[in-house]
Each structure stands twice: as C-alpha cells, then as structure tokens.
UniProtKB/TrEMBL annotation:
The gene is purC. Residues 7-231 form the SAICAR synthetase/ADE2 N-terminal domain. NCBIfam families: purC. Keywords: ATP-binding, Ligase, Nucleotide-binding, Purine biosynthesis. InterPro entries: SAICAR_synt/ADE2_N, SAICAR_synt_PurC, SAICAR_synth, SAICAR_synthetase, SAICAR_synthetase_CS. The lineage of its organism: Bacteria, Pseudomonadati, Pseudomonadota, Gammaproteobacteria, Oceanospirillales. Its EC number is 6.3.2.6. It comes from the Bacteria. Pathway: Purine metabolism; IMP biosynthesis via de novo pathway; 5-amino-1-(5-phospho-D-ribosyl)imidazole-4-carboxamide from 5-amino-1-(5-phospho-D-ribosyl)imidazole-4-carboxylate: step 1/2. HAMAP family: SAICAR_synth (MF_00137). GO terms for molecular function: phosphoribosylaminoimidazolesuccinocarboxamide synthase activity. Belongs to the SAICAR synthetase family. It comes from Halomonas flagellata. This is Phosphoribosylaminoimidazole-succinocarboxamide synthase.
Amino acid sequence: MEKRQELYAGKAKSVFATDDPDHLVLHFRDDTSAFDGERMESLARKGTVNNRFNAFIMGKLQEAGIPTHFDGLLSDTESLVKKLEMIPVECVVRNIAAGGLVKRLGVEEGRELTPPTFELFLKNDALHDPMINESLAETFGWATPDQLREMKVLTFKVNEVLKTLFAEGGLLLVDYKLEFGLFKGEIVLGDEFSPDGCRLWDAATREKLDKDRFRQGLGGVIEAYEEVGRRIGVDFS
C-alpha cells in the first residue's frame, strides 16, 4: 500500500492518505503536549512506544468483539487504519476520581467510583473540549441517539476488557477517553489507546504511570509507559 500526502497533523500523531480510499496511515510522533498544547516537548521513543502499545490494546479489544479501525503495524511508528468518518464526541469513563473530575467536584483523588461514571466531551481544541450531553449532541448534529447509545455500550465493554487486562499486570485503570467514527455505516473505535489518553496507577503504590507524569513534571514518562506495557505483555522490541 502506498503512503501519500499528509492529511492532518495533531499534537502527537499525523495522518496520511494511501492509494486505498478506505485506509489511512497513522504516524505516532515523539511529540508530547499538555494543557491544550500550552506545553510541548519531544520525548525519545514515544512514537514507537505508543504505536506498539496501541496495536496491542486494539488487538485485545478486537479479540473481545469490539470493532476498531486498527488493521496492522506498518513500522515502529506507523499503523494502517480504516478511514473513519469521525464523530466529534469523546466518551470518558472514570473508575477512580482523578484529574478534571476532582477539580470540578472537589472530590478526593483516588476515590473509587461505583458505578463508574460516563461523560461526553465535544472534541474541539479551541473550546478546550467542553463537557456536553446527549441532548446537545443530538441538537447540534454531532451524533444521533442511536450512535450515542452504541458508543456508550462499546465504551463500557472496553472498560470490562481493559480493567481485567491491567489488573493482571498489577495496575488500576483510573480513567480513559475514546473516540469513535463510522466505517461503512458501523460504529468503530478510532484514534488510539495509550497512556497518553488514560490514567494508569500501580495497584499497590498508586504511583502514576501515565501522561500525568508529564503534566505534573514527575519525569520518567516513557519509562513509565514501557513499564505498563511490559506488565501486560506488549512487545517493544
């Protein structure tokens, strides 16, 4: 398959067209950002680590019957993915209170959330990804009620699969965000799943092993990502 022109460059990934109209190349760069791009840095190996981490997770989700856009690794930093018509709504599940939930509600970080919470955010960097609800999504045409229901079902199915996977590695899946799109009319999981888009803590010590290490200046960001990967069986070689 022939890689062609760049279609989009985000904060940490670039998307390229191919000679197949149904497929794209997803390129994971070493760039890292926080606070809506206010802080940017390049971290060696990050592109490779996240590409392989994402491939592993997408494979596990596909085995569990969750449709994803991932079709295979092309290189250390590139993957072949289906071309989706993206839905501009992020789905967020929180199993443990952290991050924005703590700031908004004043609850204690680390509180277990039973049942887990489910939230929707509009994917819009200029507006800092504001929280929305189903009514707003329907009114403004961002997603239909049927699409929202299917996205919620799949998001919680992801939670079931990954909470178990990470627990086997002595890790807590604190929270995560997912993005979905349409491929030939079907709701499909898109974007990526890596420590960039979720929170993962050591189950025993509650040490943060995710992007919060970058946000909070804790250091050892990529080393933490690799540690998480090794615990669940990701091959970084």
